[in-house]
Amino acid sequence: MAAPVTRVGILLSGRGSNMMALVEQASGYEIALVASDKPDAAGIGWARKHGLATFFQSPKGIPKADYEAAIDAALDANEVEIIALAGYMRLLSDDFVARWRGKIINIHPSLLPKYKGLDTHARAIEAGDAVAGCSVHVVTEELDGGEVLGQAEVPILPGDTPDTLATRVLAAEHRLYPRVLAEFCAR
Ligand code: GAR
After folding, report:
1. pLDDT-derived band of residue 4, with 50, 70 and 90 as boundaries?
2. How many angstroms does the Cα of residue 44 sit away from the middle of ligand 1?
3. Which atom of ligand 1 sits closest to the CA of residue 14?
4. Where are the beta strands (DSSP E) in 60-120?
5. Angle between helices 162-186 and 17-24 in degrees, nearest 10
6. Cβ atoms within 10 A of the Cβ of 63, count?
């Protein structure tokens, strides 16, 4: 009998290049839903074109609990088991995290526990670090604070700007995330 395939829901806010990597390199999991908090997120357009189930709910003008309840309903309707955040730039409430405890993972563009939060590449260059990178971690109530599941290192080169470094780290993200998600779904 074939091994069960885990149904993954992706939440994103923008470009969606990590979502594309997760779709294109899917193995041991399948993308059951791509949801966005932005109607014009490029990622959601790509997902739609590629025949994936998509969902959009604006968080504007409604209580956060209602916004998250709508996402929850869409995830349930699509029988999602694991949530992968892929450039989802909105903080999830403690209640949402508790409901999905241990079942949400995220990719973050730094070598955690270094540089939680925003502007990771500028901060790594400013600090004079020789190495940057990305981390996939379990989402908990603490921002970028859950168990680190995997990391990839990228050198910081002389003359790097936050943009040139971000491009190099992003390529590493696209290799790391599908592998770590597959391992996470299998454990
Ligand atoms: C990625 O670099 C991801 O690591 C980062 O946003 C970018 C999204 O790009 N995520 C965070 O900073 C989360 N705190 P993408 O939309 O092309 O995947």
Report:
1. confident
2. 15
3. 16
4. 82-85, 104-108
5. 40
6. 9
Give distance in angstroms: CA of 122 to centre of ligand 1.
15
Please tell me the distance from the alpha carbon of residue 91 to that of residue 39, in angstroms, as a whole number. 18
Q: Which of 108, 121, 137, 174 is the catalytic position?
A: 108
The confidence score (pLDDT) of residue 88 equals 98
Which domains does the chain carry?
6-185 (3.40.50.170)
pTM of the predicted structure, to 2 decimals: 0.97
Interatomic CA distance for residues 86 and 102, integer angstroms: 17
| CA 106 / ligand 1 centre spacing (Å) | 9
Active-site residue flag, 50: no
pLDDT, tens digit (0-9, with 9 covering 90-100), for 47-90: 999 999 999 999 999 999 999 999 999 999 999 999 999 999 99
Distances in Å between the Cα of 141 and the Cα atoms of 30, 34, 96 are 26, 22, 9
Residue 172 is inside which H or E element, if any?
helix 162-186
Q: Which residue, judged by its Cα, is nearest atom 10 of ligand 1?
A: 87
The predicted model gives 140-154 an average pLDDT of 97
